[in-house]
Amino acid sequence: QVQLVESGGGLVQPGGSLRLSCAASGRIFSINAMGWYRQAPGKERELVAIITSGGSTNYTDSVKGRFTISRDNAKNTVYLQMNSLKPEDTAVYYCNADIERVVAGTFYVTDYWGRGTQVTVSA
């Protein structure tokens, strides 16, 4: 089994910072892209940032210059440093990873999701 566990959410004032972490565990052969998504109340889930296994990154326009995604391949962990937070960043943040497993000599590539961590930006 593979699990993604997020941590680091919470309540922060506008202009503040938070750092989210997401650790993948289980029988993992390798991890391709890892990313962060968010879903605000009444809205669809949206991609926030994504990072490839080689370190290439992409961000949604609303967080460019404020958020930074990074990963530690040795720890199977992805991070999201969030600075200059705004009330509109309030959402549940979900970790996503494209993971390769080997079962009985066969490769499987599966998209995994974490359970989410709440980020609330409010005065």
Question: What's the gist of this structure?
Answer:
The chain has 123 residues and is mainly β. It is built from no helices and 11 strands.
Can you walk me through this structure?
With 123 residues, this protein is mainly beta. It is built from no helices and eleven strands. It has strands at residues 2-7, 10-12, 18-26, 30-39, 46-51, 57-59, 67-72, 77-82, 91-103, 106-113, 117-121. The strands form two sheets. Strands 2, 4, 5, 6, 9, 10 and 11 form a seven-stranded mixed β-sheet that branches. A hairpin with a 4-residue loop joins strand 7 and strand 8 (77-82). It is elongated and about 55 Å long. It starts with a strand and ends with a strand. The model has no long low-confidence stretch (mean pLDDT 97).
List the helices and strands and how they pair.
Blueprint: E1 2-7, E2 10-12, E3 18-26, E4 30-39, E5 46-51, E6 57-59, E7 67-72, E8 77-82, E9 91-103, E10 106-113, E11 117-121
Parallel strand pairs: 2-11
Antiparallel strand pairs: 1-3, 3-8, 4-5, 4-9, 5-6, 7-8, 9-10, 9-11
